[in-house]
Amino acid sequence: MVGLVGVLQGRRGPHELVLVRHAESMGNLADTEARDADADRLELSARDADVELSPNGEEQGRTLGRWVAGLDDTTKPDLVLSSPYRRAADTARAALDELGLEVLLDERLRERDLGLFDGLTGKGIRGRYPEEAERRSHVGKFYYQPPSGESWADVVLRVRSLLADLREGYDGRRVWLFTHQAVIMSFRYALEGLDEAELLEIDRSTQISNASITRYLRSEDGLVLQEFADDSHLSAGPAEKTREPDRAEEPQDA
């Protein structure tokens, strides 16, 4: 099923839309360490917007950059937007360094805001906010809004706003967006007309790897998915492939 935005995009809008998840970050590593230690909170002092790439993440960005530089001129990006969060913007700059393209920052691509849950593991959420953990279980992952934070549905509204701007101002362009896991899933929801159950099933079955690519091409029916969470370009190395969950993506059992 194709959503309303997808139908409108069939008439005008980008010729190609490529969504790139940021490379591995120090937040990804801190999240893994906290879960392995069964801790309540991540050992991470930086605010979410300032979290840096890990050394392997920096290499992932450079590896992606070498792959992009080798693309045919007819498939290279000609417009690049990025989340203003450091891990996404640094991935974009590393990947596009050889092309000399300006990276435009757009706050609509930023990470989902977990509000009071920021930096907590599932154990920490259940221990400190048991009533919220129960409410989340009842409301469901897509519509649940953490205290002072955002639901996935809130992120979808940001995505729809950005798609409307791209449709009006960037007809026929090859647009690349550097962003985060929940945002990429929200693009799938908006562009493909998915319902809540379909989206959550994709989320359960496929984890979006760091520095991976999700690509759409425009057709008469709108923007049509060509690749999802593809990280084959990292096979050239030396960066290791990673599928770390986003720091702002609380676990299913939270």
Please explain how this structure is put together.
This protein has one domain: Phosphoglycerate mutase-like (Rossmann fold), CATH 3.40.50.1240. The chain contains 9 helices and 6 strands, in the order H-E-H-H-E-H-E-H-H-H-E-H-H-E-E. With 254 residues, the chain is an alpha/beta fold. The protein has helices at 4-9, 26-36, 55-69, 86-96, 122-128, 130-139, 152-169, 181-192, 196-205; strands at residues 16-21, 79-82, 103-105, 174-179, 213-219, 222-230. A 6-stranded mixed sheet has the order 3-2-4-1-5-6, sandwiched between helices.
Which SSEs are present, and which pair or pack?
Elements lengths: L3 H6 L6 E6 L4 H11 L18 H15 L9 E4 L3 H11 L6 E3 L16 H7 L1 H10 L12 H18 L4 E6 L1 H12 L3 H10 L7 E7 L2 E9 L24
Helix pairs in contact: 3-4, 5-6, 7-8
Distance between the termini: 31 Å
Q: What is the overall silhouette?
A: globular
The level of helicity is: 25-40%
- Rg, nearest Å: 18 Å
Helical stretch tally? 9
Under CATH, the topology can be stated as Rossmann fold
Domain tally: 1
Structural class: alpha/beta
Share in β-strands: 5-15%
Poorly predicted spans: 1-9
Following the backbone from N to C, one meets helices and strands in this order, namely HEHHEHEHHHEHHEE
CATH class: Alpha Beta
Number of strands: 6
User: Can you give the mean pLDDT?
Assistant: 91
Going by CATH, the architecture would be 3-Layer(aba) Sandwich
Q: Describe the strand arrangement of the main beta sheet, using strand numbers.
A: 3-2-4-1-5-6
Major β-sheet annotation: 6 strands, mixed
How would you name the CATH homologous superfamily? Phosphoglycerate mutase-like
